[in-house]
Amino acid sequence: MTMEYRQLGGSGLMVPALSFGTGTFGGKGELFSAWGDTDAAGAKRLVDICLEHGINMFDTADVYSSGVSEEILGAAIKGRRDEVLISTKGTFRMGQGPNDQGSSRHNLTRAVENSLRRLGTDHVDLYQLHGFDAVTPVEEVINTLDDIVRAGKIRYIGCSNFSGWHIMKALAYSDAHGLARYVAHQAYYSLIGRDYEWELMPLALDQKVGAVVWSPLGWGRLTGKIRRGQPLPENSRRHGKLSNDIGPPVDDEYLFNVIDALDAVAKETGRTIPQVALNWVLHRPTVATVIIGARNEEQLKQNIGASGWRLTADQIASLDKASERTRAYPYWHQLGFAERNPKPI
Predict the structure, then answer these.
(1) Active site includes 189?
(2) Which of 64, 127, 188, 196 is labelled catalytic?
(3) Which residues have CB under 8 Å from 110's CB, separation 6+?
(4) How far apart are CA 189 and CA 280, in angstroms?
């Protein structure tokens, strides 16, 4: 299988269709211990497998296991930095002080320096704001990121978990002043989480912002292990209250209907349910790369098998039908004017 490489938004950077998320590295704290606890040796092996299959982009964040994920990733890529693309994120709280969070010049400058130190590198290929900071003026945020780009410590900038107007306000300021521009939006998108299509996808098409998709398996619900009328698997993250509380809510019957549709397509294609669910996301408009995770080699190789093939139009239609939900206003209203406001897909 040859990995497909795609343009990241309107930038000149080519990224693999699948990238690897390192939220499972470290396992520090209640939330991240439920994701996984891969150590340095295990991480190196997973990185080896990724590179063997053409996956050369690795995503992390300063808050993942309180910086341990970045440290382990840095150790795993030591001696081969030029072979990989590193994506990391900042903005969320990393200390107890009043300035230990947010996207202020004070915090972002320090956060980038700390990430570089933990990763053992002099630059990050893609740096994303992990969440929107409504307190710090957009002018301060973009000017700070632009300064760091000009200093050579960041190659490209992006954001994560932003609303459409958050992104557009920043892009308008960047364009007006000739400053670094968001080329990526790391967003939640899955067969059981299609809200991205309502506003963020049309914006991404119009403004050339590539989607870096997180949790394409619906916060662990589309693994094929969660079934109607069956107890949760013992190792499911669904057992953890914190993981459930902060993850996207999903109605049980809706989930099971989608899994039924996935099951049918999986049997037709000879693929697994996760592979079908990932392949569906892979071929949606604006998607530049889909972040896959894995606790072990077997999971990683299974997820890699989601690329290099395509669902048929009929299979896509069946999955679309099972996962479609009534949109919030004004999006349901806009669907009634397809001649002037067509759906992006």
Answers:
(1) no
(2) 64
(3) none
(4) 11
Cα 206 to Cα 255: distance, rounded to the nearest angstrom: 31
- Name the average pLDDT for the chain: 94
CATH number of 5-334: 3.20.20.100
Q: Are 118 and 74 in contact (CB under 8 A)?
A: yes
Distance (Å, rounded) from C-alpha 168 to C-alpha 48? 38
Q: Mind listing the pLDDT tens digit for each residue in 250-306?
A: 999 999 999 999 999 999 999 999 999 999 999 999 999 999 999 899 999 999 999
Q: Phi, psi (5° rounding) for residue 184?
A: -140, 150
Tokens of 244: 């459930």
CA–CA separation, 244 and 18 (whole Å): 26
Q: Residue 94 has which token pair?
A: 């990393």
Question: Do 39 and 50 contact (CB within 8 A), yes or no?
Answer: no
**What's the number of CA atoms in the CB half-sphere (13 Å) around residue 307?**
23
By the 8 A CB rule, do 208 and 181 touch? no
Mind listing the pLDDT tens digit for each residue in 18-27? 999 999 999 8
**Is residue 242 predicted with pLDDT exceeding 80?**
no
What would the two tokens of residue 125 be? 């290929």
- Return the number of other C-beta atoms located less than 10 Å from residue 133's C-beta: 20
Q: Which of 67, 82, 73, 65 is nearest to 28 (CA)?
A: 65
Identify the pLDDT of residue 226. 85
Residue 104 near residue 133, CB atoms below 8 Å: yes
How far apart (Å, rounded) are the C-alpha atoms in residues 49 and 304? 10
Per-residue pLDDT tens for 77-86?
999 999 999 9
Which string of b and e fits 147-173 if b means at least 16 CB within 10 Å? bbbeeebbbbbbbbbbebebbbebbeb
